[in-house]
Design a protein that fits this description.
Length: 400
């Protein structure tokens, strides 16, 4: 969800939101955000119900299932032992890597990984997309904190191509690929395109790192298991909360020597937390409960996307775009020819008045007279038929 207080350094903000509005606009945006979250909590029907917006009691209830995922009579963790090691081994196995390290945030995990690779390659330059998470959401942490030099391979709303990587006019030590590329619409390349891009980086003697915050739900699009996808990269980061609905945290997986070095830097960066068992336990529950269901979410997201297009056409909206047209994951964008404030108000009012919240994320300005939002389909969305979606679209358009 786009208003997550996530590890991107923008708690409470939403991608694409202007940063210089007057106080009245800021206050109006804050009030609408609060209304939207209240509507989401009170809605009887939503396409996704993110755990992080639940009450403390509801979040603690996640651990009711924990005994099935871990022996609770085992000693707790201390500075990364016990259950944290179990989680690291589990994720390393899923990704087919030699070892893995748990981190409190993905921002820290990726800075450490890329810093380690820079030391090994002798080149602090990191080639990446202009819309990649570190470039957009981390307050220049690469250069300010880690001494890395980001090089933007492309700013087009798609994945970089093999030719762009091969012909880039500066040397780089690491190519970082965000899979899927969230700010471009949760887009993924084809398997052949991804293989070619990785090959182009290898031709330049660069290592490859996957920002796999949402890699978990990419298997359907690629038609490959997680370990085969991860095998293309030298190292991979995965989030433990974006798809798995855990309390937080991230895991970096790769060669054992890299992971051991990363753990040393984790300590230096302040990531050696005394005890992390609640977060680790929630992640293990997520691996058991959510990971097997992600392909089902992706498949139903495609049903929802098609119904949205048909619903807006039937409602007489002159132009609309679902991007990608066939979602690559269980998340995608919707673009409409309306002012984003009007779309946001209509979405909130629908939730408040009908207890059905079709669009639970923020509406942002996509250009003059254009509004864009993100749609996520999870367990709650599986209850929606195509006709349910079309009916909800008609109600939404009636409030514009």
């Amino acid at each position: 969800m786009s208003d997550t207080a996530d590890e991107c350094g923008r708690p409470g903000e939403e991608p694409g939101t202007d940063q210089g509005p007057d106080q009245a606009t800021e206050q109006g945006g804050k009030e609408r955000r609060q209304r939207r979250r209240a509507a989401l909590r009170g809605a009887e029907r939503v396409l996704a119900r993110p755990g992080y917006l639940g009450t403390v009691g509801q979040r603690l209830a996640l651990l009711d299932e924990a005994r099935e995922s871990y022996d609770l009579d085992e000693p707790s963790d201390i500075y990364g032992g016990g259950i944290v090691e179990t989680l690291e081994e589990r994720v390393a196995g899923l990704l087919g890597k030699e070892a893995a390290a748990f981190f409190p945030t993905g921002t820290m995990a990726q800075q450490v990984a890329l810093r380690c690779w820079a030391g090994r390659t002798g080149n602090p330059a990191v080639a990446l997309h202009a819309l990649a998470h570190p470039e957009v959401h981390e307050r220049n942490a690469f250069s300010v904190v880690s001494g890395l030099r980001p090089l933007r391979v492309t700013s087009e709303p798609r994945m970089p191509t093999a030719d762009e990587v091969r012909d880039f006019d500066e040397p780089f030590g690491t190519l970082m690929l965000e899979l899927p590329l969230r700010d471009a619409g949760f887009v993924l390349p084809t398997w052949e395109e991804l293989s070619e891009v990785v090959g182009a980086a290898r031709e330049r003697d660069a290592v490859v790192h996957f920002d796999g915050a949402r890699l978990w739900e990419s298997t359907t699009h690629f038609g490959r298991p997680l370990d085969e996808i991860a095998d293309l990269a030298d190292s991979v980061y995965v989030s433990l909360y974006k798809s798995l609905d855990g309390y937080g945290g991230a895991v970096l997986a790769g060669p054992r020597t890299l992971v051991e070095e990363a753990k040393a830097w984790r300590h230096r960066y302040g990531g050696a937390v005394f005890q992390q068992f609640p977060t680790a336990l929630s992640a293990l529950v997520g691996l058991d409960r959510e990971l097997p269901r992600l392909p089902e979410y992706v498949a139903h997201a495609r049903v929802v996307a098609a119904a949205l297009r048909e619903g807006f056409a039937a409602a007489g909206v002159p132009w609309t775009r679902v991007h990608p047209e066939v979602p690559h994951t269980n998340e995608f964008q919707v673009w409409l020819p309306y002012d984003h404030e009007a779309a946001a108000e209509a979405a909130v009012r629908q939730g408040e008045e009908t207890r059905t919240l079709l669009f639970a994320d923020a509406w942002n300005r996509g250009g003059p007279g254009l509004a864009v939002t993100e749609v996520s389909v999870r367990a709650a969305g599986l209850e929606w038929t195509a006709d349910d979606v079309k009916a909800a679209v008609a109600e939404f358009v009636g409030r514009l």
